[in-house]
Amino acid sequence: MNLNHIFFSLLGFLFIFITNFNPIIAETKLTKTETSIEINFPKDIQFKISGELNDEIEAVNLIFKIGYSNSNIIQPINFNQNQNNFEGNLTWNTNTTNKYIPPGSPIEYYYEIKTTSKKTFSSKINKLVYLDNNKKWNSVKYKSITMYYIEVFENVVQSRANDLLEATLQTVEYISPLLGLEAKNEPLNIVLFNDYSYMSKSLAPKSDAQSEKLITQGQAYPKHGVVLLLDGRESKGTASHEITHILVDRAAGSPYTVIPSWLNEGLAEYANPIKGFSYQNSFENNLKTDTLLSITKYTSPPGKPEDIILFYGQAEKIVEYMIETLGRKEFTDFIKSMKSGMSLNNALEKIYGMNKVEIENEWRKEIGASLIEETNKNTKPKSTTSSVQLYTLDSMKNDSKEVNKPTEINLIKANDSENISEDKETRLNNKNSCGLSDSNEILMLVYFFSVVMLYKKKNRK
Fold first, then answer.
1. Structural domain count of the chain
2. What CATH number is attached to the domain comprising 117?
3. Cis-peptide, bond into residue 42, ω within 30° of zero
4. Per-residue pLDDT tens over the stretch 31-53
5. Crossing angle (nearest 10°) for helices 344-352 and 328-339
6. Residue 382 belongs to what domain range?
7. What Rg value do the Cα atoms of the chain yield, rounded?
């Protein structure tokens, strides 16, 4: 065989080898993954993850959402990696003010794992309702409202829960159109308690002095879509009052708007089917003596107990005036204006052509009370009402980031062992990547060197 034949044979072989070359690259995989969650009520929640990954891990983040908000929280977690095996955990202290989670809150969470090779893996979402695991919880649901309760005497509590659920739903269906809420099916959760000593452990942490003086009948957590309710003679009224706080927040709440307590509490009492005698009596007595509060100057309720009773009664009356005398449509437009980001006074000026003091004076003329003077000095007493949000997701911004929730991700139960696939973008990059292993590079260089040497030898001849 002459050199020409050898040369062209090697060249042809090299061409075939290159065109059919498919480099073997070790694929990075996350396998044998297990996630779990342990609720130690009311102390903390333990999040855990473990699995195998044939790449060095740079960071593991827990990404979760509490309640019915649209924001997620990113929380870095501690992890250990031994060769391909890894495990991580996070303790979320629910007995602290800024990490408190009200019972009944839905929780969704997943993990994001980043490697030193710049690859990212995301687990599937786990979903649960935060409740004390030491209790046996039952639930009843009608339309958008779910009520959780602990059965004590056969079906006694269940029957009571059904009655309260029906009353609450009537409030939602009555108030939602007034507030301009079109999505009446947005979820709401209520947790019913029969024992105040147990309910007090479920509330957000507060000082011992507050605990001794206050008995909370109901507590609304608008950002979570949750109401904690103590069963009693006035439970229907309390449930309606607290549910309205959540609806008001959804209808008028905005990052740029502060909903004053006189408006918030006034609406909640307006929606209350069981009117408080003490509120009405206090209002009538102070109207007779012309000692009503300058109600629209209060961004939060007054501190004295006797003033608080008057505050609630008076707030209901001025809101009732705005709705029934100035018009329901106008009131709905006013709430929508606040939702758009307008300040209280700007929204009032736009819809009514009056500021808050002028609105109050018009109402005072209607009831025969003396007028108040407009002043730039706002009265802002310390709030003692249970409607104050003790914890929201916004308070986590100092040590967490907000992210958009993934749009396509399936639910799995905790403790399920699943293979977790790499992000689509990463998979595409790997599929289209071009690279050679060390052994294949050497082989190609040998062939190329042989072809060059044969070509030079042929030219010498």
1. 2
2. 2.60.40.10
3. yes
4. 888 999 999 999 999 999 999 99
5. 140
6. 272-388
7. 32
